[in-house]
Amino acid sequence: MNVQTLFVSMLPEHLLLGGLCVALVVDMLGRARAVLAIAIVSVAAAALAAVLLALGGYAAATFPGQLSVGPATSAGKAIVLLLAVPVLMLSRDEFRDARFALLALASLYGGCLVVSADSFLTLLLGLEILSLPVYVLVLLAMQRPDSAEAALKYLVLGGAATGMLLMGASLLFGWSGTLAIDAFGRALGAPEAMPRAAVGLVVSAFFLKAAVFPFHAWAPDAYEGGSVPATAYMATIVKATVLLAVVRLFGSEGLAPATAMLVAVPPLVSIVWGNVAAMRQASFRRMIAYSSIAHAGFLFFALLGAAGGRFQAVAFYLAAYGLASVLAFAALPREADDVAGDRLEALKGLFQRRPFAAVVLGLAMLSLAGIPPLPGFVAKFLVFRNVMAAGHELLAVAGLVGSYLGLYFYLRVIQYMFMSPRADGVEATATLRRYAFAASLACLVPVALLTVFPGWVLGMLR
């Protein structure tokens, strides 16, 4: 390794770290309002660097055995960082100080390390750098009475996931004598009890991180207790990073029948339970939490497919799901009473009050539901095509039936906005927030790109 390789291969991380250092200095000088602009510029620059590295096919072992970069890892970083830009824009309407931007920059640095990790040491380090600032992001929503409880639940269960990952890594080390993530791939088909237990613990840890049934209980409380930008960050950035790490763990290895059932059954139950539970929610954020539980099931379902198409299916799904989720949060009206504004009833008659917000939110709901020709449909099609191609036709049919359950609550939101009279006590002349409007536009452009040119995007993800 030379200095040039270190600089080029970790250019996105360097830009994030440089932006974080500059933002800290600017904040200490009393210019807190400039911190967000610095954060957005540094994240956008890091995303551009990742895109260029991916398109250029750049590959290097930055720290052999610990961290490496290739076109797939750079593409994964680009997705995570591009999703972070509108989330940062969205945060200005909630936070006037520098706390959210600084914590997000630190968390994104950890996310980039996770995507490039070649060993469980680097993976664990990246996950902790990613997660610790997010616990604080949930706590920042002090205008909500349950934010402290939500942050505590997230912290405790996040610690439990770390413990399971450490135990699984230690068993893998005892079995293989190495902490390289390649050992996980070899353990997938091993007949011994120790590697099987290690695989179960590691997969369970990521189930907990991604809120997959039965490790999903923290998500509704954390999503509801956090602020809108914090919830958007958890639903998109954290989930995207975790799933990209899972794809890297499974690598090019096929799945033994026992492992296939481990990867298939909890996600399938997660799809059904997430969609059914979302039907009963009166809170928008809580509904999105259960929706994210169902989408996490779809993402893990992609692991059942052929190894060659896993990354493409997961990456496209993360891009489509992440953009639709951020778009929904950006278009969500904000009321003076945060708790009352989060009720689904507050969306009644939204088209008469804020037509642009209603149309954008409706577009996001249709994409999350998987209605063609929106990106959500293409994303689900890719997952089920790969699952069926791998010979799991029955599981694919069950997952497809489970996905139809989600149509009810997504269409209910649209019915509230376009077909219901305006809710009592809601301002009729309120306008869309400026930074939320900018975040909406930042999401609409790539959504249009994924809708019109999905084949071109998929070609870039090969």
Structural class: mainly alpha
**Spatial order of strands in the largest sheet:** 1-2
Structurally, how many domains make up the residues?
1
- Biggest beta sheet summary: 2 strands, antiparallel
**Helix fraction bin:** over 70%
Uncertain runs are: none
Strand content: under 5%
How far the N terminus sits from the C terminus, by CA atoms, comes to: 27 Å
Number of helices: 22
Structure summary, number of beta strands = 2
* Element-level helix/strand string: HHHEEHHHHHHHHHHHHHHHHHHH
Per the principal axes of the C-alpha atoms, what is the gross shape? Answer: globular
Mean pLDDT: 84
Radius of gyration based on Cα positions = 21 Å
Describe the structure.
With 462 residues, the chain is mainly alpha-helical. The chain has one domain (3-460). It contains 22 helices and 2 strands. The protein has helices spanning 3-9, 11-28, 33-55, 71-91, 99-116, 120-139, 147-176, 182-187, 193-210, 218-225, 228-250, 257-279, 284-301, 307-331, 338-341, 350-353, 355-369, 375-389, 393-404, 406-419, 434-452, 454-460; strands at 60-63, 67-69. Strands 1-2 form a two-stranded antiparallel sheet. Strand 1 and strand 2 form a beta hairpin. Helix 14 runs antiparallel to helix 21. The longest helix has 30 residues, at 147-176. It is globular and about 60 Å long. The model has no long low-confidence stretch (mean pLDDT 84).
